[in-house]
Amino acid sequence: MKNYLLNAFSLQMVDAPCIALFEEVDALPSGLVSAIGHTDTARVLGVEPNRINVHLSDGDVAYVAQLQGGRLPEGSTTLPKGFSFKFIKVKVVNFEKLVDAIYESYTNGNLDGNGSTCRADENYEYISKKYF
Q1: Domain 3-95: top CATH class
Q2: Pairing assessment for the beta strands 84-94 and 61-68 based on DSSP bridges
Q3: Which of 49, 82, 92, 130 could disulfide-link 42, Cβ–Cβ 3.0 to 4.6 Å?
Q4: Predicted confidence band of residue 127 (pLDDT cuts 50, 70, 90)
Q5: What is the dihedral of CA 98, 101, 105, 108, to 10 degrees?
Q6: Phi-psi category of 130—alpha, beta or left, where left has phi over 0 and alpha has psi -120 to 50?
Q7: Of the candidates 93, 129, 88, which has an alpha carbon nearest to the alpha carbon of residue 19?
Q8: Segments making up each domain of the chain, as ranges
Q9: More confident residue, 99 or 83
Q10: What is the CA 112 to chain-centroid distance, rounded?
Q11: At what angle do helices 95-106 and 120-131 cross, to 10 degrees?
Q12: DSSP character for 111?
């Protein structure tokens, strides 16, 4: 599993079929690989600029630092007044694995379909723990 810091997200970054789960987070975890190619944005975020291609596969996570407030002025080293970053966590999940997990949760692990069904909240908890 890889964890990246990005300043943009593109569909070209993921394998199909997959599902990308988006969640706003308050802060960034440590240990992210910077893929911030814009020098000023990298400086403001306190990371090294690193212009690389990112490819996200099953289980990989990207944190997108989305600038709010306008275009960052040239040469910025801090956020100008009225600007902020919104951080979006993007987790990539292989679609076929997710379908298998849903089916498995409804059959209590009995993948031949002869198992008993369980309640929706149990399915959600089961899938969340297993894949997210």
Answers
A1: alpha beta
A2: antiparallel
A3: 49
A4: low
A5: 170
A6: alpha
A7: 93
A8: 3-95
A9: 83
A10: 33
A11: 140
A12: T
Q: Which token pair is 51?
A: 């212009």
Whole-prediction pTM value?
A: 0.76
Say which residues have a Cβ less than 8 Å from residue 49's Cβ, sequence separation at least 6.
34, 36, 37, 38, 39, 42, 43
Confidence at residue 99, expressed as pLDDT on a 0 to 100 scale:
77
Residues in the chain: 132
In the chain, % helix, strand, coil (3-state, to 5) comes to 25, 25, 50
Q: What is the pLDDT of residues 97-123, one digit of tens each?
A: 877 777 776 666 554 555 554 555 566
Residue burial 50-60, b: 16+ Cβ < 10 Å; e: rest: eeeebebebeb
Buried/exposed 13-47: b ≥16 CB within 10 Å, e otherwise: bbeeebeeeeeeeeebeeebebbbeeeebbbbbeb
